[in-house]
Amino acid sequence: MTITDLTQDILSCGYTGHIRCEKKDEIIRAVVLHGNLRLPPMLLQIREGLSLCGLSDFMAKYPDVCKPLLVPGIEMKADADFILSICKADFSETGSNKRQVEQTIMNHLQDFLQELEQDAPPCVSIIVSTWVTGQGHVPVLQAEKRHFKVNIKFNHDCQQEHGAHSICYPLVAACTSTITLPVQHMAAYDNFKVVLLEAFLQGQEFLRV
């Protein structure tokens, strides 16, 4: 980037002279003066506006939470730990064979998400977190976090319900934030990975074949 590329920014700071490297000191003075005289009143207006909504006190109390909202390039991603923390599994009766299988499936999900976070390209992790949670970032407000859940259900009877088929994919109900996993096709971890990766990466169409 050259000084010519910054022409518009320099002019917006009130500098009216020739824009050349030889005028560097004059340009810097104009920029500093602009920052000292123009920006504080603007920031004060923003603060007053935030105070009307009670956000100024909230930002003072939770600076780390609010910083990603106001600083470009900072965002709290939905990582494996966050996704697992919001998953609410609808388990079968304690001690039953179905319950044991379901717990194995949830262990597979944990291993899969952690493996993906460590080894997969960032774009794949974002696709997965968005598919599971509906968004790629962590809710900021505590009230949002409390109500932000993904229900996990288990289908043990897809063969009986739909006849002979070699594979079927998870079913997603976006309105209720519910994912139904086809247990018979995901009991082994390798099969679990194949089913989920195909669901994520091949058009996200959830079909039976």
Enter the CATH topology name of the largest domain: Hect, E3 ligase catalytic fold
Helix content bin: 55-70%
Terminal-residue CA separation: 55 Å
CATH first level of the largest domain = Alpha Beta
Low-confidence regions: 205-209
Q: What is the H-and-E element order? A: HHHHHHEHHHEHEEH
Shape: elongated
Give me the Rg, rounded: 26 Å
CATH architecture group name of the largest domain: 2-Layer Sandwich
Query: Counting H and I runs of at least 4 residues, what is the number of helices?
Result: 11
Average predicted confidence as pLDDT: 80
How would you sum up this structure, described in words?
By secondary structure, the chain is of the alpha/beta class. The radius of gyration is 26 Å and the shape is elongated. The protein folds into 2 domains: 3-70, no CATH class; 80-201, 2-Layer Sandwich (Hect, E3 ligase catalytic fold), CATH 3.30.2410.10. It has a 4-stranded mixed β-sheet. Mean pLDDT is 80; it is low at 205-209. The termini are far apart. It has helices at residues 7-12, 24-37, 39-52, 55-61, 63-70, 80-86, 97-119, 122-133, 142-147, 158-162, 189-201; strands at 87-89, 150-155, 171-173, 178-182.
